[in-house]
Amino acid sequence: MSTKTESWGSRVGLILAMAGNAVGLGNFLRFPVQAVQNGGGAFIIPYLICFLVMGIPLLFIEWSTGRYGGKFGNHSTPYILDTMAKGKIWKYIGVFGIFTNIAVASYYCYIESWTMSYVYHSVVGTFSEMSQGEVAGFFNSYVDVSHSTTGIPYESIVFYIICLLLNTYILSKGLGGIEKVAKIGMPLLILFGFILAVRGLTLGTSGASDIFPDANAWDGLNFLWTPQFDSLSNPKVWLAAAGQIFFTLSVGMGTVHCYAAYVREKDDIALNAVSAGFMNEFVEVVLGSLIVIPIAAGYLGLDWVIQNAGFGMAFQTMPYLFQQWGSVLAVFAGVFWFGLLFFAGITSSLAMGTPWMGFMQDEFNWSKTKGAWSFGALALIMGLPTVIFYNEGLFDQYDYWAGTVSLVVFAFLETVLFSYIFGIKKGWAEINKGADIKLPGIYKYIILIVTPLLLGWVLVSSVPDWVDKVKDNDTYNKEWFAKEFRAENFDAAGEKDGKVVDVAEDHVKIAFDSEKKVFDKETKQVKVVSFTDYKEYSFDPSKGQKATVQLGDVVKPNDVIAKGEFTNSAFYKFIGRMLLLSLFIFISVVVYLAYRKRVKEGRATL
């Protein structure tokens, strides 16, 4: 076993680094979208409850588990968990704590690279004079590797590699490098967020226009912060709230364990966990809710925001909105906004490298430099497919299986281990060891009963969705290589038919009756109204793809609408799942080799 002398330089540095691990792109991109898609104020109450009964307990569990394993010289989850229970299985359960970080970092750094690129484009004035549609089109061109917005060939790949190299270089400096970035990045993030939040609070109706005469930033704030108590009986909202807690606090990943493993045995972890957790919530709930939604509602109207809320909205909309502030302020706003997102991203992605590095240092005496660059290489191998095949859905497979499912599975298993195998009595004592605050005794029973029940419910409720994903039940074009292309569902239930309104050599446009959500200011409720929507399918004549429908035809879901040579997204999704499975198997083999090495050295028994 390698001798560990590395530790955090200061408590402030540790808390900022841990907060930086939690404060990420999800605080500013995912939280507002989840809130809007789940009813605004209807989402907030379940979200805050989940934070208190699931988020905080998991932080206590992971901080104390990490510190406990650290005193035995273990700095990543395989052998941190192995120290807590008898049985060979737990070291392999701990594989999740390395696998998730490499898999998530591989595509997370791609989003992070978008922010770098958008800072550049904000400074050089790329977005000036662009319409909102043109800004949205710019994003679509950027994620298509065959296009370039700067003249640099394969621009998105170049920015991705630069971003990954920066992360790897900082990681090679060890905890000191991470701590320095956190001490600089977190204050700048909060400063940039505060500046933009003030603008969101003061925009009011000044952004209204002839196209959007009802635009009002206050509508966005009222929508987010008007409680809707009927959501307490809606399981969909609870599942969304629980998922956001996982995403925002970075629990169920293994990064918290790794950071806490470098804390000294009698150092406080209770106050550290609470401090990092509430700092994250301040950034997410206060700053995160005061920027994207109010500013977008202030220029485009709340109804537009409700109908178009999505993860890419910050990239497809915000540059256009900043242009309304004038050319000079638009540059500063772009730098502040995308700079904020970059600092939020890099403080999280750096944390994702530490479990692999810690494991390889512990088990194979690898240096920080070797550990960091090997992590970068793994992330690059795993990540390039998500960049190249972004539009084919491979990116989404990584986000779903590694960024969602893996977190829930690991969090549930580690909670069972902590409460029922390690034992809640020992676990509660470990949480309170060296604590600077007295924790409410109720949390002992929340950790023992409420948290595992809630996690178990989330887990079981998600299984049907896992099956649907594996079977590609979200598409009728299941065949990898097909001679026909079929129309997908026009509505969620698949009950609507469509009518062909435009046919050309390279596309088919189909109209169908749909519904959209709008906000009723009088009742302060979201209501559903009917309208005519359109779906357009693009085809490539060079591959022999040709529409088989004609103008005026009625099209049902699963009807053949084109013939030719098609490689469907189901193929790329399968490749994504196989890459993730291969990574998990690879790390399991590495853990097994480490176990054999320990046996040979007399540090473990067969």
TrEMBL record:
<feature type="transmembrane region" description="Helical">
    <location>
        <begin position="402"/>
        <end position="422"/>
    </location>
</feature>
<feature type="transmembrane region" description="Helical">
    <location>
        <begin position="574"/>
        <end position="595"/>
    </location>
</feature>
<keyword id="KW-0812">Transmembrane</keyword>
<feature type="transmembrane region" description="Helical">
    <location>
        <begin position="184"/>
        <end position="202"/>
    </location>
</feature>
<keyword id="KW-0472">Membrane</keyword>
<feature type="transmembrane region" description="Helical">
    <location>
        <begin position="12"/>
        <end position="29"/>
    </location>
</feature>
<keyword id="KW-1133">Transmembrane helix</keyword>
<feature type="transmembrane region" description="Helical">
    <location>
        <begin position="442"/>
        <end position="460"/>
    </location>
</feature>
<dbReference type="InterPro" id="IPR000175">
    <property type="entry name" value="Na/ntran_symport"/>
</dbReference>
<dbReference type="GO" id="GO:0016020">
    <property type="term" value="C:membrane"/>
</dbReference>
<feature type="transmembrane region" description="Helical">
    <location>
        <begin position="237"/>
        <end position="262"/>
    </location>
</feature>
<feature type="transmembrane region" description="Helical">
    <location>
        <begin position="152"/>
        <end position="172"/>
    </location>
</feature>
<keyword id="KW-0813">Transport</keyword>
<feature type="transmembrane region" description="Helical">
    <location>
        <begin position="89"/>
        <end position="108"/>
    </location>
</feature>
<feature type="transmembrane region" description="Helical">
    <location>
        <begin position="322"/>
        <end position="351"/>
    </location>
</feature>
<dbReference type="InterPro" id="IPR037272">
    <property type="entry name" value="SNS_sf"/>
</dbReference>
<feature type="transmembrane region" description="Helical">
    <location>
        <begin position="282"/>
        <end position="302"/>
    </location>
</feature>
<dbReference type="Pfam" id="PF00209">
    <property type="entry name" value="SNF"/>
</dbReference>
<feature type="transmembrane region" description="Helical">
    <location>
        <begin position="372"/>
        <end position="390"/>
    </location>
</feature>
<protein>
    <submittedName>
        <fullName>Sodium:calcium symporter</fullName>
    </submittedName>
</protein>
<feature type="transmembrane region" description="Helical">
    <location>
        <begin position="41"/>
        <end position="61"/>
    </location>
</feature>
